[in-house]
């Protein structure tokens, strides 16, 4: 049974996962305006802090629903990225994972730490059975994150999605509640 709770605070060893607030616009702009961060994303780099603020207002409005799962990744006093769960399907008990991190924090394990905590929350607190994710085959670091958290490569899709770098071939990953529990033993 799915028990939607929305975006709740999650604490990890180094991070605080929390709602993204309108006051975070300047920090959000720092990574959402970076072409390297946006290279495999569907959204264009943000052109101004005002644009980032508008985006956050939309996200913040979504928090009124317990079906919205969008966390800011906070390290110390800085918001350094985000993790989201979208396309939640109650009937099939599954959803899709997405994440984004400021470039200066890449390769430090922050994304893995944040994503692992969100997956645990979604599988064991909310009650989903399956979380899926895709990444461009050219974005090897994203694939490593998915592997580190125990997701299983289930397939390959040619020209699966369009992003700022054009059509992308993608690897398809997933993890189930049972597999997650076994990986954490």
Automatic annotation (TrEMBL):
The keyword Transferase applies. It comes from the Bacteria. Residues 15-178 form the N-acetyltransferase domain. Keywords: Acyltransferase, Transferase. PROSITE patterns: GNAT. Pfam families: Acetyltransf_3. GO terms for molecular function: protein-N-terminal-alanine acetyltransferase activity. Its EC number is 2.3.1.267. It is an enzyme of class 2 (transferase). This is Ribosomal-protein-alanine N-acetyltransferase.
